[in-house]
Design the sequence.
């Protein structure tokens, strides 16, 4: 009889064996890093320094613009170097966290050998990618920061206050305070890290000051939102950041009743799209995959998905029309009359 093993974790001890004896390691995550990516980077940096005496640098791709993430970066002093200033010869290897090299939103600096990947997203099999010396990919985890916490625990390295705060934020935001996709491992990490984490910094990250532009963006979002009953469609033009598209999709999902919330906006030459769902059984990734069709790339799990369409061949209004017609078709809403969210009854 054939037994399929559960997704097994690699022997964490082998992580030590793939590391160089000395030198510098480059740390990377996906474009527009979020608290989980930043937390995992800080955690790996602490481990490499404390346990293995290895120095690290990090490159963050895409700007960090969401107020919470900016505050996290600033208060935890997470300093990245510009990607075009990287000399590959200065590094003995690279580690990618909260993403995988085959993902469309991940473009680490070229010419540095990839040593390890830590990620909690479903992997995409790609035969063209060379085997990775140490690969720990397990979508059972609610956050990559939890995996890094386990790695620190395995090597008996205590997170200091800064590291605990960073990892705690990673677990907290990716699992929405253990409410979304959290496992016993996430809960253990959350509780243990919370004891050491800096409460002042956590509070400041949670409630950062918001710019005037942020409120103007929300205003434009409310005006753009079309309510189709089971779908809230908010296709904007230029937006402040890809994160503001996700924020608007999240925000409108809280409208009473259950629905899909699809938001989009143009930023940095791409049309960014976020899909959220609070309907029972709703699976956001295949839905967004269908909606973008062959025009864009996306990722996601459970009730959240995000993606983008490059704006080189299509204009913003063409992209908006494409998304609108595919979304209505997917949810059998073609021909349904929408009403504006801000329309007075
Ligand atoms: Mn994550």
Sequence:
């Amino acid at each position: 009889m054939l037994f399929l093993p559960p997704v097994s974790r690699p022997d964490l001890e082998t992580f030590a064996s793939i590391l160089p004896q000395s030198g510098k390691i480059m740390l990377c995550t996906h474009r527009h890093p979020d608290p989980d990516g930043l937390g995992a980077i800080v955690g790996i940096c602490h481990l490499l320094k404390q346990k293995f005496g290895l120095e690290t640098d990090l490159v963050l791709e895409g700007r960090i613009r969401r107020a919470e993430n900016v505050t996290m970066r600033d208060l935890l002093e997470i300093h990245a170097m510009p990607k075009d200033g990287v000399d590959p010869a200065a590094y003995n290897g690279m580690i990618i966290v909260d993403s995988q090299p085959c993902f469309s939103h991940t473009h680490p600096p070229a010419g540095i050998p990839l040593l390890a990947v830590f990620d909690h997203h479903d992997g995409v099999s790609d035969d063209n990618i060379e085997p990775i010396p140490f690969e720990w990919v397990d979508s059972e985890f609610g956050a990559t920061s939890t995996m890094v916490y386990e790695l620190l625990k395995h090597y008996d390295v205590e997170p200091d206050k800064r590291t605990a705060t960073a990892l705690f934020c990673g677990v907290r935001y990716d699992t929405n305070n253990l409410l979304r996709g959290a496992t016993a491992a996430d809960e253990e990490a959350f509780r243990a890290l919370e004891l050491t984490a800096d409460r002042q910094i956590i509070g400041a990250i949670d409630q950062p000051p918001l710019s005037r532009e942020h409120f103007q963006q929300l205003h434009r979002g409310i005006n753009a939102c079309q309510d189709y009953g089971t779908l809230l469609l908010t296709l904007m033009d230029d937006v402040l950041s890809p994160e503001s598209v996700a924020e608007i999709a999240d925000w409108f999902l809280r409208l009473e009743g259950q629905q899909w919330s699809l938001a989009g906006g143009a930023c940095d030459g791409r049309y960014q799209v976020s899909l959220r769902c609070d309907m029972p059984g709703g699976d956001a990734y295949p839905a967004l995959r269908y909606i973008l069709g062959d025009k864009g790339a996306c990722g996601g799990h459970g009730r959240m998905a995000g993606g983008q369409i490059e704006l080189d061949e299509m204009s913003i209004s063409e992209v908006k029309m494409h998304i609108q017609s595919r979304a209505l078709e997917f949810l059998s809403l073609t021909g349904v009359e929408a009403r504006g969210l801000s329309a007075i009854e």
User: Anything to note?
Assistant: The CA atoms of residues 47 and 152 lie 6 Å apart. Residues 36, 98, 120, 143-144, 174 surround manganese (II) ion (CB under 6 Å). The radius of gyration is 21 Å.
